[in-house]
Design goal:
This protein is mainly alpha-helical and 677 residues long. It is built from 35 helices and two strands. Strand 1 and strand 2 form a beta hairpin. Helix 13 packs parallel to helix 16 and helix 33 runs parallel beside helix 35.
């Protein structure tokens, strides 16, 4: 193999600030002066940037024909990383190189179609290429290294670890950055590996982690933390994350290494994001803190007091519990206190910080540390996060379909700050001491918001800030429904609270409050009211209020009303309460299903069909026709449209429910068969 990047050249020394050019020879840009094979390849890559689709397609076909030729992979890499080439061509070359490696390198234990000689040239040069790559190219080259590592390390790339060590030990920022990139990809290979497959990882840890922690500490001591510096801090965190995700290597269980890593991570969590830093740098800082919080959540969840003394991880669990769990909790409380002061904290960091606090609730030691700050935490930090925000208001106005999608997306729910606030409160009510000490003041706070809101409404006043607080109060009140319905003295007050404070909001001028009110009524639909569960005047009034909102002018309200209705349908004892409005219900559902893909709507439709059985027969044909149309609409969406796929599955389930409901009327099948099959 050959080194086309001049690996023997003396590289410039540098401080921890922005990296400088790495002294690479720049090939002439004149295609006539390039080697013919490279010049020809550059012309093809240039064609990939053409505004004409047919030119792009022809260029892509030429690239595909060249995939298996000797030198194609190394030529693409050379064009991508050598200075002097037009940057747009370098980007296309980098992407083409990544795609070629992904398809043609092979998988672990098998060879791909890239010639063996070409593979050797690539492996000899790819880390050096990473050193010389600008950011737009570096990310593509790093992905290639990951693909090669997954396939070839350690047996077919035994020199990699030495190359990584040489780079991170060099004291040259560009080389250190490249070495950390490669190490991140190497540790990532073993992130989810079982213990018997992690022996190679432990060798890597023993070899290079003493250097990595020195790099991390040196970066932290730097007065000027440039974008490149912050990106290296992030790489150090991601390397540690991949290494300890399933188990902690012996080296990192040693006290000196434990304290060095935990101390450095704590400093990263606490250090302020420079307000005067460029936006890109500030964004990277929040990503660094995100990875620190990921690590701490993982360690706190995995190595709490449930670890038994005979567990190999017990010594690490003791170290973490003694020296880290409480200290990180204090750091997180300090971080979140910034919200109260109007400081910016990224939504993802807020979510992860709340996850840590949620896990701290059942732990007596960490709860004791939270206790003095708990009411401030609930009312000054968590409660405002539960309320309707400026971003919510903008999305509601500009894109109500997206507002609904986000509200019902299960994956989205994992990452939103508001959902984590609710998880915190729900988990709090399941912990004996935290619940006993904090549920009464929380309910009192909700009650005070209810009273203020109704008082203002009684005077005919509109107070936007109070309306948003009411939204948060309704959300928390409804989310705690299961606890409140079964706990004295709250269960004796639920019916009156719903009558006085919740039901009237169903007709409020603010659409988001109407939506939250119908949702909240739905959460209490199965409550045993004065006249019984699923019957009586109170139940009927609440259900009628929800049904009326099916014709609301705003889409999110109609969707929330439809979903809330399912709770009433499942609880109702007297079907006459619904029978009279059944045609109207089904008509509104058909219009909604036509307008938006939502699996929760289908669940409500199924509940109605199951409740009425063969009474649904007169409407079965119309419903099936609309459902089959919706199904094909879902199927025509993007391949990565998870919500559409869920909705399509729900449609099939609903069709099955309808067919089962009319099974006692065989002649119906003749009518439905052409629609369904």
């Amino acid at each position: 193999g050959t080194s086309f990047l001049g690996g023997g050249e003396q590289q410039p020394q540098g401080d921890w600030g922005p990296s400088r050019a790495c002294g690479m020879a720049a090939p002439a840009q004149d295609p006539g002066q390039l080697p013919p094979q490279i010049a020809s390849l550059c012309q093809i890559l240039q064609s990939c940037l053409s505004p004409q689709q047919q030119v792009i397609k022809a260029a892509e076909e030429q690239l595909k024909l060249l995939e298996k030729t000797q030198g194609q992979a190394s030529n693409l890499l050379q064009i991508a990383v050598v200075d002097g080439m037009d940057m747009s061509i370098r980007q296309v070359a980098a992407i083409s190189f990544k795609n070629l490696v992904s398809r043609g390198w092979g998988k672990e234990g098998e060879d791909g179609f890239i010639p063996a000689g070409d593979k050797e040239v690539v492996k000899q040069n790819v880390l050096l290429a990473l050193v010389h790559s600008p950011p737009l190219v570096r990310v593509q080259v790093a992905e290639c290294i990951k693909s090669i590592i997954y396939c070839d390390y350690p047996d077919k790339w035994p020199s990699l670890l030495n190359e990584i060590y040489a780079n991170i030990s060099s004291q040259e920022p560009p080389k250190i950055n490249a070495g950390l990139y490669a190490l991140r990809m190497l540790t990532r290979k073993y992130e989810y590996k079982s213990e018997e497959d992690r022996a190679q990882l432990y060798g890597v840890v023993n070899s290079v982690f003493p250097v990595v922690i020195q790099i991390l500490q040196q970066l932290l001591r730097s007065d000027h933390k440039s974008l490149e510096c912050v990106e290296m801090l992030k790489l150090c965190c991601k390397i540690y994350w991949s290494t300890v995700y399933l188990s902690v290597p012996q080296l990192l269980m040693q006290e000196d290494h434990f304290h060095a890593w935990m101390g450095s991570l704590k400093v990263l969590l606490e250090c302020p994001v420079p307000a005067d830093a460029p936006a890109a740098c500030r964004e990277q800082w929040w990503k660094v803190k995100k990875w620190v919080l990921h690590i701490m959540n993982r360690l706190f969840n995995k190595y709490d007091k449930r670890v038994k003394p005979d567990d190999p991880m017990y010594p690490f669990a003791v170290l973490f519990d003694t020296h880290c769990a409480g200290q990180i909790l204090q750091s997180i409380l300090g971080l979140l206190a910034g919200l109260q002061q109007g400081q910016y904290i990224s939504p993802r960091c807020t979510n992860l910080a709340l996850q840590y606090l949620t896990h701290a609730l059942p732990n007596k030691k960490t709860y004791a540390l939270m206790k003095p700050h708990f009411q401030q935490l609930m009312f000054s930090i968590l409660f405002p996060l539960a309320c309707h925000s400026d971003e919510d208001a903008q999305l509601w106005e500009e894109d109500p379909h997206e507002y609904v999608r986000k509200g019902y997306d299960l994956l989205e729910d994992l990452y939103t700050t508001r959902s984590q606030v609710i998880h915190f409160f729900i988990d709090m009510t399941s912990c004996k001491t935290p619940c006993k000490e904090n549920l009464p003041p929380l309910v009192n706070h909700i009650g005070s918001v209810f009273v203020q809101f109704v008082g203002a409404a009684g005077k005919g006043e509109r107070n936007p800030a109070l309306e948003r607080q009411m939204d948060g109060a309704l959300l928390i009140f409804g989310s705690l429904a299961e606890k409140l319905k079964g706990t004295s003295p709250y269960k004796d007050q639920v019916e009156q609270i719903l009558h006085t404070y919740v039901a009237p909001v169903v007709n409020h001028p603010a659409g988001y409050l109407r939506a939250k009110a119908v949702w909240c009524l739905g959460m209490f639909a199965d409550f045993k009211f004065t006249q019984g569960r699923g019957k009586g005047q109170t139940f009927a009034v609440f259900m009628s209020s929800v049904v009326a909102r099916l014709q609301d002018p705003e889409l999110p309200v109609r969707v929330d009303a439809s979903v809330a209705l399912r709770c009433f349908v499942e609880s109702v004892k007297d079907l006459d309460l619904l029978r009279g409005v059944l045609p109207q219900l089904l008509n509104e559902f058909m219009k909604l299903i036509k307008e938006i893909e939502n699996d929760d709507l289908i669940h409500t439709l199924e509940a109605i069909v199951e409740k009425f059985g063969d009474e649904i027969a007169p409407y079965a044909s119309t419903i099936c026709q609309q459902l089959t149309t919706s199904f094909w609409k879902c199927m025509e969406g993007d391949d990565d449209d998870d919500m559409g796929a869920l909705a399509a599955l729900g449609v099939l389930r609903a069709l099955g429910t309808i067919l089962e409901s009319v099974s006692s009327i065989p002649e119906m099948y003749t009518e439905l068969e052409p629609l369904v099959f």
